[in-house]
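Late entry, zinc ion complex.
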Amino acid sequence: MNNKVGIIGVGQSAFVRTYPGSIRELVFESFREAMTDAGIARTDIDATVVCSAPEYDKQRSPAGVIAEYLGLNPQPTFYAETLCSSSSTGLRLAYSLVASGLHDMVMVIGFQIMSQLTSNESQERMGRGADIQWESPFGTMMPAYYAMHAQAHMAKYGTTPEDLALIRVKAATYGQLNPLAVYRKPVTLEQFTDPASFLGGPVATPLRAGDCCANADGSSCLIVASEEKARAFSKKPVWIKGVGAASAPVNMAGRARLSGLDAAEEAARQAYKMAGITAADINVAEVHDCFTIAELMAYENLGFAKPGEGRDLIRAKETYKDGKIPVNVDGGLLSKGHPIGATGGSQVRTIVLQLRGEAGEIQVKDPVFGLVHNIGGVGLYGNVTIFGVD
Amino acid sequence: MAKNELDTRFSEFGTVSFAAVTRVNDFIGNLENGKLTGTRCVKCGKTFFPPRAQCCECLAAEMEWFEVTGEGELVSYSTLQYAPTGFTDEVPYTIALVDYGDYKVFGRIDGSVPQEDLSVGMKLKAAVARTSNGRLTYVFERSQVK
Ligand SMILES: [Zn+2]
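Prediction complete; structure with ligand written out below:
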């Protein structure tokens, strides 16, 4: 399957604490941006893939109501789900639908409204993305699983809570510049030890509140096109160069290690191989920093740093905009918030804008290859996608 | 139990159980008898924890129970100060993964073990216990064996 597949339109709603509307209205916000960006008509779209984490949705089978609201009948529409990486999975499906020649243009919609649940309820729902039979009865939640990874990483490599806090400080540096982010205040290392700041508040040792991203409401929209359509509609198509996806045991008891995510590493290996490049060729990356430790492990799982040396990258500010490998210069999930189903599409949007040279204040200098690392659950679903310019 | 009634013993497991019917419900019976158990495939010998009724290695569906005994090594842990709905009365509590060599076991560390005494690699042993709301569970305790 060597047909070139491009992205010709990207959109994202503002990620907010509480969206004052329904899922279809929220989706419309990113749909409008992507349609305008691509300059296409509704009738140009051959199919839609709709992505979210269903535990938050009251609406069963949301693809139907969304396709109707966006005026995308009678084209086929269907739903895709891999928890927090749902829209990367949607993109993978769109890629194959277009590369196979079945469709010329496919839209990937990601969304989530999380604000209708309390934070504790939300932890319970997301926790049920883990093993409900054998783990949930112990009172598990996503931050606690990632905290176990942090503890293991610290024990094995000597990574410190301060190293993790430095990742949040970087996120906030760029979150302040992102008008679509939910958290736009600066963060300092000192705040993590200041009792007056919420950032140092304990959540699940060794993770503190500042190590965790916030729930949010939001949507994202991507328009994926065949080479012919991409060249016809877009002056600057961004090409999908490599797609990688993998899975890992849900239950922690099935994991060979907790100091890294094997599914991310495997997905990265596939994506680099398909793109014919290595980690050193990546100029800008978006990684799944639902927690600070998740970004640190991503540095290592993606090959930006050797195992155990992720901390050296952040200490030397090599993942800042002017560093060796800029990571999450849009503020990441830590600043933008994490509306589960919308997150992957938002990451892709940032990379597409970077590769077009349209990223504004956060523009990295002349990037050729960009990478998106989007994880579902606690390393349960790993997705790595590589993008490039001509 | 009447013939047509579903065996829902698994709903007794943990502070809040999200499952009720499973082919490995004898796990609960074993806990009631003071034993934490996994399963071993009768055909190929593969051991499973958590226990399972079917073997993905050899496709057999005949399992025998084995007891989780002796010391395991603490792989990692986290103490929760914040909890999901249903568990908020129990904080702080510590979840952990313990490696027994052939298999690993996920669970909670007993509240009697001080948090400051925990370290990755320490030896722990599993024991059947009751949750704060009186339901069946198991915990990891400090090994008495030196
Ligand atoms: Zn077997």
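Chain A touches chain B through 42 residues (CB under 8 Å). Will revisit in the morning.
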